[in-house]
Amino acid sequence: MYDNKPGLEARLAASRLLAAVIDRKTSLDGMMDGDHGNPAYTALSEADRSLVRAILNTSLRFLPRIEAMLGLLLDTPLPDGARALHHSLIIASAQMLYLDVPDHSAVDLAVEQANRDPRNRRFAKVVNAVLRRLGREKQALLDETTDVVCMPGWFFDRLKAVYGADEAQRIADAQMTPAAIDLTVKTDAALWAERLNGFVLPTGSVRLGSFSGSVAALEGFEEGAWWVQDAAAALPVLMFGDIAGKRAVDLCAAPGGKTAQLLTAGAKVTAVEQSANRLKRLADNLQRLGFEAELVQSDLTDFKPDELFDVVLLDAPCSSTGTTRRHPDVLYTKGPQDITKLAGVQEKLLRHAMTLVASGGSIVFSNCSLDPSEGEDVVARVLADHADFERVPVQPLQWPGLEAAITPLGEFRTTPAMLPVAEGFSSGLDGFYACQMRKN
């Protein structure tokens, strides 16, 4: 029986979870759930969980470059059956190249991992040699791989086809920087920006700079003065304009950020969510914020209210490729077939959601995908069949600072490469699509 070295269990957990993402296309969110996640993760202390999250996010964010460097360092490729060894080399390299972990510690624990695994014990000397060389030649290897695009080839090719090579490269570069934390505040964004040392964005969101501790410990959290919501995710509700007193429904509503926006704007809100667990989370979030809404657990296509709505919001399930700055596993758990399948789901949901709009009312369809097949293409097909609906174009003059995000048709199309901000604050925002349509 071995006595585990300090930090070894965290590295073992990181390797297992990385294998689940890359080899089995398992989402990190579920595996890193504090209560119901992967046992290797939930067994760790909070400090070790934080380390595992940092290792995994960094490994996935820079995965193509790390693999390119390992390819330069290995005299011969690892055998096909050495996937566990491959993953341990990746997490060790991520620590040495991009995290504040001493090289000797990362090397020692990677060698220990190899020795503990009967399949990989014979490679322990290879692990030691490769990682020690990585430490010696770190800067040269970083320089040699600087042109390696840090996303899977299939997705970068799709970006180039849609956005052009230069913009695709800017998006890819932006993905390497973790996303900022943005807040939507109930009232007085400028005041809360001052209190929290933040910066007010063109969306009215407050972007935080660096801070220590948890978000929940910040001023205003307990009293429900604000909630965390990426600036791009705040746009769909803002597109409705003045909705005070109107009947509104938020479809696919959890975790509730957009529901809270609708309530802040004075609408009478129904929130629909299929998942009981997600609906409970939404209810808890609204309670903290001091809001009340009618909550309905239902599959969207089964939701048929007695009265139609003036305001309908459908933030549809999607591939989430616009959120990879905070969820870098997405590009390794999704593929082209997922985008095609999800586009079909979105079209079905949008067609049903349009039946819920009262005459003279409007609907905003949105999602956090960078791929037009999940946005522009869906809306174009649906509008072609609905002469009773028309686009409500976004007017650039009403959105100073966001002009680059407005398409020729008057839709929003944001990317992580947009929205440069003040010095000291992270630039960018999630990739998002949003279109408003009015029923005649």
Report on this model:
With 440 residues, the chain is of the alpha/beta class. The chain is built from 18 helices and 12 strands. The protein has helices at residues 8-24, 28-31, 39-42, 46-61, 63-73, 83-98, 103-116, 124-136, 138-144, 153-163, 165-174, 189-195, 235-238, 257-264, 276-289, 330-333, 336-353, 376-384; strands spanning 182-185, 198-200, 206-208, 226-228, 247-251, 268-273, 294-297, 309-315, 357-367, 389-391, 412-414, 432-439. Strands 5, 6, 7, 8, 9, 10, 11 and 12 form an 8-stranded mixed sheet that branches. The protein has a 4-stranded antiparallel sheet with strand order 2-3-1-4, covered by helices on one side. Strand 2 and strand 3 form a beta hairpin. 44% of the residues are buried. The model has no long low-confidence stretch (mean pLDDT 95).
Q: What are the main properties of this structure?
A:
440 residues; alpha/beta; eight-stranded mixed sheet; four-stranded antiparallel sheet; 18 helices; 12 strands; 42% helix; elongated
Write the layout of secondary structure elements.
Elements: H1 8-24, H2 28-31, H3 39-42, H4 46-61, H5 63-73, H6 83-98, H7 103-116, H8 124-136, H9 138-144, H10 153-163, H11 165-174, E1 182-185, H12 189-195, E2 198-200, E3 206-208, E4 226-228, H13 235-238, E5 247-251, H14 257-264, E6 268-273, H15 276-289, E7 294-297, E8 309-315, H16 330-333, H17 336-353, E9 357-367, H18 376-384, E10 389-391, E11 412-414, E12 432-439
Parallel strand pairs: 5-6, 5-8, 6-7, 8-9
Antiparallel strand pairs: 1-3, 1-4, 2-3, 9-12, 10-12, 11-12
Helix pairs in contact: 1-4, 1-6, 4-6, 5-6, 6-7, 6-8, 7-8, 10-11, 17-18
